[in-house]
Every structure is written in C-alpha cells, then in structure tokens.
Amino acid sequence: MAGYFSVTNTIATWNKDGITTNFSDSYTVSFPFGLNLLKSDHFGVSFEVAPVIRVEKNIAKVNSVVFHPGAMFRFKHGFTFISRVAFETNGRFGVTPVFNKVVIRNKDSFFFVAASFPARFGNNLSSSLGSGIQLGVGF
Fold first, then answer.
1. Are 58 and 94 in contact (CB under 8 A)?
2. Where are the domains of the chain?
3. Which of 3, 82, 126, 139 is most buried, taking the most CB atoms under 10 A from its CB?
4. Measured CA distances, 39 to 7, 54, 109 (Å)
5. What is the CATH architecture of 2-138?
6. What is the pLDDT of residues 2-34, one digit of tens each?
7. How far apart are CA 49 and CA 105, in angstroms?
8. Does the pTM exceed 0.85?
9. CB neighbours of 29 closer than 8 A, spacing ≥ 6?
10. Contacts for 93-97 with beta carbons within 8 Å, 24 or more apart?
11. Among candidates 124, 99, 94, which has minimal Cα distance to 113?
C-alpha cells in the first residue's frame, strides 16, 4: 500500500471550439491525493480524489472535485500505466489514461512525474480531451 500527494497543471484542452491552453483565459490546477493498493509487482488499484481550482478574472474557486479510481499496470524501471475513470462533482464524467514514472525512490518515499490525458463528457457540454503534467510524492 502507498499513499501520495501531488499537483497537476493542465496544459491544454481540445473540444469542438478548438484548443484552449492553460493561462490563456484562466488557470486550472488540481491537487490529487490517493492510495494505491498493490496486488503484485505488476498490478494494483488506485483510489484518487482531486480538488480542482480554477482562477479566472482574479477570482479563485474550487471548480469541482474529481473521484478517480483506476487500475494500475506496473512495468520495469518505475513506469506505470493507470487507467482511471472520472466522476466530477460538476456533472462531467469520463476516463483519464495516466503515464507515470517514478524518478527518485528513497527508503520511505518516492517522487514521480506523470502525463495525463483526460477525456470528459456530459453536463450538456461538448466532449473534450485534455493534457496535463503531474508532479508528486508518495510514501
């Protein structure tokens, strides 16, 4: 079992209206934290909760909270693929494939970097595909 805390910065989001980059009209950041239950050296289950903060026109607010369970497929050299489903409190839902790499491993902790590609649907909004970079520490 391993717990973690991280920060994820959105890079860009694509939908029917085109590409929107983070910092263009607003800034979005999330703070995922979770628990990984490792079944073996190659497979595990991850339960993540990610509060999402959006800053627009100098007003910051919690935009949503994402409930993000998923299956972890672990490979050699610290690489992991995590296939997450996503349920957002703002009414959106979808999937988030995550490509994760442990970059530093200590006796009681590890540091990782991950690339995520969230696909979202629902809530009477157009479907979207995003990208993000996540940095975190696990224990």
1. no
2. 2-138
3. 82
4. 26, 36, 19
5. Beta Barrel (2.40)
6. 999 999 999 999 999 999 999 888 999 999 999
7. 23
8. yes
9. 7, 8, 9, 10, 52, 53
10. 93/120, 93/121, 93/122, 94/118, 94/119, 94/120, 94/121, 94/122, 95/119, 96/68, 96/70
11. 99
Residue 127, both tokens = 């479907």
The rounded distance, in Å, linking the Cα atoms of 20 and 86 is 21
3-state secondary structure of 89: coil
Give the three-state DSSP class for 78: helix
Q: Which two tokens stand for residue 48?
A: 């993540």
Name the 3-class secondary structure at 76.
helix
Please name the amino acid found at residue 2: A
The whole-number pLDDT of residue 111 equals 97
Here the contacts of 107-115 (C-beta below 8 Å, separation 24 or greater) are 108/139, 109/137, 109/138, 109/139, 110/2, 110/137, 110/138, 110/139, 111/135, 111/136, 111/137, 111/138, 112/4, 112/6, 112/78, 112/136, 112/137, 112/138, 114/6, 114/82
